[in-house]
């Protein structure tokens, strides 16, 4: 089974309405079967599922759909035993599991999973999978100190800006969250203000860049409109150098 960030019920359902676009195996039939009691795969139900991540934390717009869908499609959920820890960690990563653990574990007084349990657990997963803190925790070659610094810096900006965090992965010309790079770089002390030079060994230890043998001779010369932009441009140069 292959699941990547962004593969959610909502997207899969939209694909099922368009012939020629691929779904997971048997997904179209499963979706139809699971909402048969609510009119089947109508345009109205498609719009409902497209809003899956926007539904209330505790209210499923199409009752019991999630329990049916998960039990038929994936090995990480069972109608009786609920969510399987190893399965969730294997597909979504340990940070997502830990963030949603209380919702994924069977309620103490319950002998088996319920529609409510299935929905609340999976709804948490789909919302946490792209959460900036989860993305940071899953970053390879990043030290714990660097991850903590990045999280601290996100706390300093309004949460409305957090939605721009994913854009950093594409190294756009302008920094998605202004001054974010300067913030975590300063916390890690990997830039020397007096000399205007980067501490490359400290950068490698904390952030895994630049790559060995990368062409970085001119990176420290990049300039932006202000200090934050300069930090971002130079850091991006080191990160992208080959």
UniProtKB/TrEMBL annotation:
<dbReference type="GO" id="GO:0005615">
    <property type="term" value="C:extracellular space"/>
</dbReference>
<dbReference type="Pfam" id="PF01395">
    <property type="entry name" value="PBP_GOBP"/>
</dbReference>
<keyword id="KW-0964">Secreted</keyword>
<dbReference type="GO" id="GO:0005576">
    <property type="term" value="C:extracellular region"/>
</dbReference>
<protein>
    <submittedName>
        <fullName>Odorant-binding protein 83cd</fullName>
    </submittedName>
</protein>
<keyword id="KW-0732">Signal</keyword>
<keyword id="KW-1015">Disulfide bond</keyword>
<dbReference type="GO" id="GO:0005549">
    <property type="term" value="F:odorant binding"/>
</dbReference>
<comment type="similarity">
    <text>Belongs to the PBP/GOBP family.</text>
</comment>
<dbReference type="GO" id="GO:0007606">
    <property type="term" value="P:sensory perception of chemical stimulus"/>
</dbReference>
<feature type="signal peptide">
    <location>
        <begin position="1"/>
        <end position="22"/>
    </location>
</feature>
<dbReference type="InterPro" id="IPR006170">
    <property type="entry name" value="PBP/GOBP"/>
</dbReference>
<dbReference type="GO" id="GO:0007608">
    <property type="term" value="P:sensory perception of smell"/>
</dbReference>
<dbReference type="InterPro" id="IPR036728">
    <property type="entry name" value="PBP_GOBP_sf"/>
</dbReference>
């Amino acid at each position: 089974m292959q699941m990547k960030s962004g593969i959610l019920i909502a997207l899969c359902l939209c694909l099922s309405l368009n012939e020629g676009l691929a779904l997971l195996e048997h997904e179209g039939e499963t979706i139809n079967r699971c909402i048969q009691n609510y009119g089947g795969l109508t345009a109205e139900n498609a719009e409902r599922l497209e809003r899956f991540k926007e539904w209330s934390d505790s209210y499923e717009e199409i009752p019991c759909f999630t329990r049916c869908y998960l039990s038929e499609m994936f090995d990480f959920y069972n109608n009786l035993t609920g969510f399987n820890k190893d399965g969730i960690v294997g597909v979504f990563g340990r940070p997502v599991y830990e963030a949603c653990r209380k919702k994924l574990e069977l309620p103490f007084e319950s002998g088996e999973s319920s529609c409510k349990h299935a929905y609340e657990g999976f709804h948490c997963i789909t919302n946490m999978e792209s959460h900036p803190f989860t993305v940071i925790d899953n970053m390879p070659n990043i030290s714990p100190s660097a991850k903590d610094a990045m999280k601290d810096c996100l706390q300093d900006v309004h949460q409305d800006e957090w939605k721009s965090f994913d854009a950093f992965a594409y190294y756009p010309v302008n920094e998605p969250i202004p001054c974010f790079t300067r913030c975590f770089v300063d916390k890690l002390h990997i830039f020397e203000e007096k000399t205007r030079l980067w501490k490359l060994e400290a950068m490698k230890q904390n952030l895994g860049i630049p790559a060995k043998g990368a062409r970085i001779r001119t990176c420290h010369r990049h300039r932006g409109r202000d200090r934050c932009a300069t930090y971002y441009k130079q850091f991006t140069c080191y990160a992208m150098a080959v």
